[in-house]
Write a structure and sequence with these properties.
Number of helices: 2
Radius of gyration: 20 Å
Number of strands: 18
Order of helices and strands: EEEEEEEEEEEEEEHEHEEE
Helix content: under 10%
Structural class: mainly beta
Length: about 280
Amino acid sequence: MIQNNIKMILENYGDSATLSLVTGAEIATLPLINVQKYNNSRKFGSTDKAQLQIKIDLAKIQPISGLVLWDHNLSNTATIQLQCYSAANLTGTLLSDTGEVKAIPTRSFRDWNYKTQAVVSSAFDNWPTRFTQLFITPIFAGSLLLTIKDPTNTSTELLFNRLYLGQVFSPRVNFSYGHSQLWNDESEQIPTDDGSLWSVEKPVKRQLKFDLNYLSDVDKSTFSDQLMRVGKRKDVFINMYPNAGGQKALEYAMAAKFTTVPNLSGTYYNNFTATCELTEV
């Protein structure tokens, strides 16, 4: 896998897994099961900020190379750790261990405005949705242990909306030049008799459009299989610049749905193309 290329978690193995808390407790009205189905009005919550451990028992042995916690309230000092085991119930061989890593990256020097921003800050500080992504060397796992530590969080509870877990699709050749990103504002504008222009405010959602013009047979088969399983009906995670860091990475990373299922076209021997259009969810 080429680490700098676009990354997508399409089929979400977390949705069919069995989740349970090893350390910590859920708030009764914000159960852990909420993170396994797309719904922006439901979240998981816990008051155990010092250490929260979530056991993820996969439905079967699955290829794992990425995990994303989407729409959370973890602070800039929070840490996260992912451990992957070969068998169910955190047994068998420990295949992968990220160690404790920062849940929220520090703002890069390129994005830092010394006149208005603290020396140690994050691009997420001015961003509407906080998320944490972990990409690992692909393995076949039976269970995982996710550890979250955020003892200095000023909120009374830790919250997150969605868990994306699965095989990362990252084509060998990156998307082509000519991609676009749009802040789609569907607010209704209403002119009045006095010449004013009033607006009925609605949420602003990002839209992405890009072309994958150099998909090999292997990439095409993997992508096609994943598209069959998600279509337009299921939410996915995408990051077009996963290693860019800072504002650039944020603008091109989101939970999304395909607005149309890409048409995989064979252009010449062992080469396929696909135009991808997604909207933020």
